[in-house]
């Protein structure tokens, strides 16, 4: 397996650089672009996240991960938003597509990254499959609010998530989808999970759950289980060895 890091300027902000880490098996393989959650201190170099990437890559799926603008303790965090995260993912997607034009691309994400994945779908090329782990849902107005008081005010409105654009966007997805929820999720309300499950097309989807709470990447044993679930799904849906 080879390990490559790409550094590029985001089209929306030429002064900002986004580092993409790519784990590539020796043979040709699908590429999973993963968008992680919203914790400001998290990064693609978190030990359990690195383990997750390597386990998936060793099974034959190329892994591409990145850090959003404003993450890793960046003081500019509160100048970013869901919209900038969607733009970051779009930039990563098209860069990976330009480097590996013949590869099948899979989009995946957890928590806020799950929402980011769904919200990016109208702006990118056709994906081969989608993987969602405990995705969040936000009122459509929250997309344009910077993180901080403005964002918090919107998402704390009672059941504001019901007006999320994520549900109609996911309803249009016709590619294989793996939807994983956390059995004892203390962050994503059960009503959001239920709405997502009712939205995905069951004839093209798999619904699964992980025991335990929302913070999957805090527990290595759950990370390994997650990786195995994704590997199995992609081998069945994309039919690669």
Automatic annotation (TrEMBL):
Pfam family, one: Hydrolase_4
Superkingdom of the source species: Bacteria
Entries under SUPFAM superfamilies matching the protein: alpha/beta-Hydrolases (SSF53474)
Domain Serine aminopeptidase S33: start-end pairs: 48-141
InterPro entries reported for this sequence: AB_hydrolase_fold, Hydrolase_4
Protein name stated in the entry: Serine aminopeptidase S33 domain-containing protein
Species: Candidatus Yanofskybacteria bacterium RIFCSPHIGHO2_01_FULL_45_42
